[in-house]
Write a structure and sequence with these properties.
Elements lengths: L6 E4 L9 H10 L5 E6 L11 H10 L4 E6 L7 H7 L3 E5 L6 H11 L2 E6 L17 E5 L14 H15 L4 E5 L7 H7 L3 E4 L1 H4 L4 H12 L2
Parallel strand pairs: 1-8, 2-3, 3-4, 4-5, 5-6, 6-7, 7-8
The structure holds D-xylitol-5-phosphate and zinc ion.
Length: 222
């Protein structure tokens, strides 16, 4: 089988928003593969972040794929706006969509890659009838809403099971992990079956982005 691509996606949630352009260019230079953008509405999660205008701004400062993680209720209302702003991948939470399959089709129609997100307590059974509608599964490894939380250990087994199911149902799918991802646990996450690693505080709170991303990549090579 072809070797699966390992992708580091820094989450700008932990970046300095007063210097967003410099921060994005710094992680790009440091070896980031995608830019992960966390959109929160203060309803689905207890925090508020940013909307399409900020994504439009980000689009102007990088050519890297923009990976938009929507932590908002009824995300179908904003798919087109985020795609038009420059999103390449758009992921929606199972828990926030009444008509999930319709919303995923909408993302595809808009021309973005559809992803589906599961909160830590949401079962993988939620994926049973949508395997062909998605290009990425995002497994939350913390409860969404904030950066800098601790990885929930029971998620390791969930990643393993998700990879087994994905190998059967849609082997090219990306398995992304988000929350508490660091250089120290990244190899275990890869071994469990993840191949897209979102990391916010571990990168943006470090003194040297390049060294942190390089260490993550070196650890993934083992
Ligand atoms: C949390 C967000 C994450 C967050 C991860 O709701 O989805 O993307 O930025 O932050 P860290 O890597 O600090 O756990
Ligand atoms: Zn995220």
């Amino acid at each position: 089988m072809e070797k699966r691509q390992m992708i580091i996606a820094p989450s700008i949630l932990s970046a300095d928003f007063g210097h967003l352009e410099e921060e994005i260019q710094a992680v790009e230079k440091a070896g980031a593969d995608w830019i992960h953008v966390d959109v929160m509405d203060g309803h689905f999660v207890p925090n508020i972040t940013l909307g399409p205008v900020v994504v439009e701004g980000i689009r102007k400062c990088t050519n890297l794929p923009i990976d938009v993680h929507l932590m908002i209720e009824s995300p179908e209302r904003y798919i087109k706006a985020f795609k038009d702003a420059g999103a390449d991948l758009i992921s929606v939470h199972v828990e926030a969509c009444t008509h999930l399959q319709r919303t995923l089709a909408l993302i595809k129609e808009a021309g973005a890659k559809p992803g589906v997100v599961l909160n830590p307590a949401t079962s993988l059974y939620a994926l049973d009838y949508i395997w062909q509608d998605i290009e990425m599964i995002l497994l939350m490894t913390v409860n969404p809403g904030f950066g800098g939380q601790v990885f929930i250990p029971s998620m390791m087994e969930k990643i393993r099971t998700a990879r087994k199911k994905a190998d059967r149902e849609n082997p090219n799918i990306h398995i992304q992990v988000d929350g508490g991802v660091q250089a120290s646990n990244i190899l275990d996450l890869k071994k469990a079956g993840a191949n897209v690693f979102v990391s916010g505080s571990a990168i943006f709170n470090s003194d040297n982005y390049e060294m942190t991303i390089k260490t993550m990549k070196t650890n993934l090579d083992q």
